[in-house]
C-alpha cells in the first residue's frame, strides 16, 4: 500500500503541467467564400466549448489616396487632414465589411476580437500575428493569391541550382503553383494547427508539432504495450529500407519547408523592393506630369499672347492702311485745290488785264475829249 502511494505521489510529481488553453483564430479576406470559413469554424469549435475567437483581416497599408479623377496621390504629397479623413473612410468601409462576420459570431453567443492588420504581405502579417498572440488553432480558406501564382514557380530551370545544391529530385515542386493557404500553413509557427476550409468543408489540416509528436508517442506506447502484453509473440522487425525511406521523407519534408520559407522571404523582399520602385516611379511620374502640365500651361499662355500680338498687329495694319488711304485722299484733295487755285489766279490775271485795258481806254477817251 505504501509502495502504491509513493508511486502515485512520484507520478503526480513527474506529471507535466496542464497545457495552456487553446486560442482559435479565423483569417478572412472579406469575400463571400470567407463566410463559409467562419461558419465552419463556428460549427467546429463551439461544440468543443470555445466561446472566444479572433477574426483576422489583412488590408494593404494606406500609402496613396485615389482622387475623384482616378489618379493616385502619395500621402506624403497631401495634408495630414486629408490623410486622416481618407483613413476614416477606409476604416468605415472595413467596419462595414466585417460587420456581417461580427453579427454571425455574436448570434452564436461567441465573443469575437477583430484584428485588422495592414501589410503588403498577408502571409507574413498573419504569421507574425499568430506568433505574437499565441493562437493555437487557425482556420483559413483555400483561395489562391494571384500575385504568388504567376511567374516565380513557372521556370523550373531557374531553380535547378537549388535542387542541385540540396540534392533533391523533385522538379515538380518547383513547377507547382503555390496557393495562399499553402504559404500561410508553411509560414505559421509550428505550435499552431492550421485548418484549410474549401467550399464549407475541411480540405486539409497542418497539425502542430505537439499534435504530431503526441500521435507518434501514442502509437509507440500502443506498440510497446502490445509487445509487453505478449512476451512470447515475436516482435515484428521493420526492414532497414523502410527506416531509410522514412528518414529520407523527413529530410525531404524539412528541405521543402526550408525552401518554402526561403521563397516566402524572397517574395517578401521582392515585393518590398517592387513597392519601393513603384512608389519611386509614381513620384517621378507625378513630377513629370506636373512639369508637363506646367509646360502645357506656359504653352497655352504663350499661344494666347502670340494670338493677342497677331490681333494687335492686324489692327495696327488696318489702321495704317486707313491712314495711307486718308493721306492719298488728302494729297488728291490738295492737288485739286492747287489746280483750282491756279485756275482762279489765271482768271484774276485776266480780269486785271481787262480792267487795266478798260482804264487805259477810258483815260484815252478823256484825253481826247
From TrEMBL:
Keywords: Ubl conjugation pathway. Residues 1-21, 205-243, 321-342 are annotated as: Disordered. The keyword Protein transport does not apply. Its EC number is 2.3.2.27. GO terms for molecular function: ubiquitin protein ligase activity. It is an enzyme of class 2 (transferase). It catalyses: S-ubiquitinyl-[E2 ubiquitin-conjugating enzyme]-L-cysteine + [acceptor protein]-L-lysine = [E2 ubiquitin-conjugating enzyme]-L-cysteine + N(6)-ubiquitinyl-[acceptor protein]-L-lysine. InterPro entries: Rossmann-like_a/b/a_fold (IPR014729), U-box_ubiquitin_ligases (IPR051348). This is RING-type E3 ubiquitin transferase.
